[in-house]
């Protein structure tokens, strides 16, 4: 193990995981390459989806809505962003995200005959990460398809972890369902002039909306452009629905548990839920055809003629999605 410190980055380099990845990748080379072929297809589809999300998000921001993409720092609610994850749940989720992402890069590279130089656990201030250092000279000599398999493998690792989390969310949710007391719906972003971020909603026209299930029932009886009486922070307030019959807010379920077991299971559930969401999100955004991302490296192999222009457009869209809500 080797220790490096360059503020604000702390790095621990390991060789043992390199041997594990290389052994697994070479031993199961054919199977890993077949999985890599699937990763390439998903990667190309992911590039298209990522670009569409950036364009859609840009129009949403221009129209005054929140971006669907943004920076995420565990425990910090950033201005203009509806994205927020609690500190410890976020730290744990990011740790596993990095392990699966970089581990898949290392295993796929091994199947293509490239042994990683080292693996590393990183800590940037308090944010964990992981890395796999590949031999770039050997990588350059590989075929186009081999490089596409290696580049797309990271996002595939994220999608695999997301599926694992999803499979565990349902049984965990059933275990805690009887241990939850719903407190209301917290507004995280609002375009409705009568409501603002931080408001806690509990009733609409006298109907309890402490949970999302009750909210759906309450909205069944409402019509577009109508006025409603909504209980906000224990006080009645008049608000108006928009032309689509929506309230114009983003909501987050608030609740508490009845005993310590519920708190423990709730923490596990939140980790699984956050881990699922950020692995899907990061897996897709990582496929954006932008030079510094895996999608950009894939695009360079697919079309050397167009990847620079597409990368510039992708970069502008990404920056606009992140900073746009602050401006607009």
Q: What is the residue-mean pLDDT, rounded to a whole number?
A: 89
Distance between the termini: 48 Å
The amount of beta strand, in percent, is: 15-25%
Percentage of helical residues? 40-55%
Q: Indicate the overall shape.
A: globular
How would you characterize the largest beta sheet?
Answer: 6 strands, antiparallel
Gyration radius from CA atoms, angstroms: 23 Å
Task: Please give the number of β-strands.
Answer: 10
Q: Could you list the spans in which at least 5 consecutive residues all have pLDDT below 50?
A: none
Q: Please give the domain count.
A: 2
Structure description:
- This protein has 328 residues and is an alpha+beta fold.
- The chain has two domains: 2-176 and 269-327, no CATH class; 192-247, PDZ domain (Pdz3 Domain, Roll).
- Helix content is 53%, strand content 20%.
- It has nine helices and ten strands.
- It has helices at 16-27, 29-62, 87-111, 136-140, 144-176, 212-219, 260-285, 294-302, 307-327, and strands at residues 2-6, 9-14, 118-124, 127-133, 180-190, 200-204, 207-208, 227-232, 235-240, 249-257.
- Strands 5, 6, 7, 8, 9 and 10 form a six-stranded antiparallel beta sheet that branches. A four-stranded antiparallel beta sheet has the order 1-2-3-4.
- Strand 1 (2-6) and strand 2 form a beta hairpin.
- The model has no long low-confidence stretch (mean pLDDT 89).
Offer a concise description of the structure:
The protein has 328 residues and is an alpha+beta fold. It has 9 helices and 10 strands.
List the helices and strands and how they pair.
Elements: E1 2-6, E2 9-14, H1 16-27, H2 29-62, H3 87-111, E3 118-124, E4 127-133, H4 136-140, H5 144-176, E5 180-190, E6 200-204, E7 207-208, H6 212-219, E8 227-232, E9 235-240, E10 249-257, H7 260-285, H8 294-302, H9 307-327
Antiparallel strand pairs: 1-2, 2-3, 3-4, 5-6, 5-10, 6-7, 6-8, 8-9
Helix pairs in contact: 1-3, 2-3, 2-5, 2-9, 3-5, 3-7, 5-7, 5-8
């Amino acid at each position: 193990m080797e220790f490096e410190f360059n503020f604000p980055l702390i790095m621990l380099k390991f060789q043992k995981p390199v041997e594990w990845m290389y052994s697994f990748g070479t031993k199961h080379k054919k199977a890993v390459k077949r999985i890599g072929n699937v990763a390439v297809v998903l990667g190309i589809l992911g590039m298209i989806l990522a670009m569409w999300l950036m364009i859609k998000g840009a129009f949403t921001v221009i129209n005054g809505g929140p971006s669907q993409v943004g920076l995420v720092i565990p425990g910090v609610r950033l201005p203009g962003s509806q994205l927020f994850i609690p500190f410890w749940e976020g730290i744990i989720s990011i740790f596993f995200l990095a392990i699966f992402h970089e581990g898949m890069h290392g295993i796929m590279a091994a199947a293509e005959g490239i042994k990683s130089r080292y693996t590393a656990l990183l800590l940037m201030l308090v944010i964990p990460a992981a890395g796999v250092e590949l031999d770039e000279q050997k990588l350059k000599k590989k075929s186009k398809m081999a490089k596409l398999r290696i580049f797309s493998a990271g996002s595939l690792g994220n999608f695999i972890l997301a599926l694992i989390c999803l499979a565990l969310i349902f049984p965990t949710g059933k275990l805690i369902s009887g241990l939850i007391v719903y407190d209301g719906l917290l507004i995280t972003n609002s375009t409705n002039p009568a409501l603002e971020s931080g408001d806690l909603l509990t009733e609409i026209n006298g109907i309890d909306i402490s949970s999302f299930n009750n909210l759906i029932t309450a909205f069944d009886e409402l019509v577009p452009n109508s006025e409603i009486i909504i209980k906000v922070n224990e006080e009645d307030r008049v608000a108006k629905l928009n032309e689509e019959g929506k309230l114009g807010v983003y909501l987050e379920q608030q609740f508490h548990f009845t005993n310590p077991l519920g708190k423990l299971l709730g923490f596990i559930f939140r980790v699984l839920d956050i881990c699922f969401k950020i692995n899907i999100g990061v897996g897709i955004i990582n496929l954006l055809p932008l030079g510094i991302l895996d999608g950009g490296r894939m695009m360079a192999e697919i079309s050397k003629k167009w990847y620079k222009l597409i990368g510039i457009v992708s970069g502008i869209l990404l920056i606009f999605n992140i900073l746009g809500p602050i401006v607009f």
